[in-house]
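note to self — DONT lose this again. spent like an hour looking for the file last time. sequence + predicted structure for the chain T wanted, 335 res
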Amino acid sequence: MMQELNESARLGAGKQLVMRGVLALALILLGLKMTAWWLTGSQAVFSDAAESVINLITGAFGLFSISLAAKPPDRDHPYGHGKIEFFAAGLSGALILAAAAGILREAVPALRHPESVNRLGLGLLLSAAAGLANCFAGAYLMRRGRRSSNMTLVGEGKHLLADTVTTAGVIVGLVAVRLTGWLVLDPIVACLVSVYIAWSGLGLLKEAAARLMDEADPVLLRHLAEALQQVRRPEWIEIHQLRAWVSGDRPHIDFHLTVPRTWNLRRAHDSQDELARALLAQLGIDGEALVHADPCTEDLCSSCSVQDCAVRSEPFSGTEHSWTLPSMVSHGSPD
């Protein structure tokens, strides 16, 4: 995962190119679906076209957010501009909900007075072409977004995949109308589509809110714990209060490092810098690691392997302090 974060940092311009492609695709698919709606007069096809309008709007904002997130930190934004991507994902979720409400507004009255559906053959063909294009594009964006921890790409991917499912549902509904002649199936499918995309929008809003509130990422923390275990040295006694979050493509890591209390300030500071550099090198990323040095306490003596310690209160037990993820994210040993 961490190597993929670094890859994403090197390919920021590539992500902007991807979003331009998403915009172009959304415009083409919107044209196809609007044509299908004009030909068929179907409420279900209208619901599909309405979601494509949202795709176009969120794609435009997604491109803006990725461009802004790529800007380096400045005086007003010392942690960078990456959180705009979480806001973009939240906007996508909100607009999906708005699209669902608009579809219901049109479809519910048609349940009582369903209208005839025309030229189903050509309408089905256009919808199928749009659905296949969305499926491939959405899967690609989801894969790339997950690899780079990029919420904007993930949000767009989810939106396109949701659009694929709605298109598939619309096609099934139109086929059923053609086979049975039951016109009421058309607005029923439109209502089902609106419920599905509303559920997708709520999920995206929830994920964006979690990221904006810096919710802990267990996968990221696990990779950090594994990397810290690889660079460990005997004089680095304990790590606690491990925290991390990602802004755009740049991870921010901070934790407390326990060192021998006999060390002077210069030696402790040099050790902080050494561990930060070793950690980022082990991860293979360009990020920020902030290490706080804490003096050891007597309760750690039995798990400390530092030789020739003048203040040791009990001998080393032969087992060093555990550097597991639970111990690293804890608040450390009590004083």
